[in-house]
Specification:
Elements: H1 14-18
Length: about 60
């Protein structure tokens, strides 16, 4: 192998192809990007401190 891609339509060497991305290949996005749920409002998560938990009856 001479360092060139086999079966590709371009004549760039592997080094030439990986040079613009510093050798890090990024996979294509997967899944339905439009289905992502928005994050909850920051700072709105209730905090229950010790001793503030309501008394619960035991399970039967």
């Amino acid at each position: 192998m001479s360092g060139l891609f086999e079966g590709g339509s371009n004549n760039n060497s592997l080094s030439d192809t990986l040079d613009p991305c510093d050798g890090v290949l990024q996979p294509p996005p997967t899944g339905d990007q439009g289905m992502a749920a928005p994050p909850p409002d920051e700072g709105r998560t209730p905090v229950i401190k010790p001793g503030e938990v309501p008394v619960q009856s035991p399970k039967q």
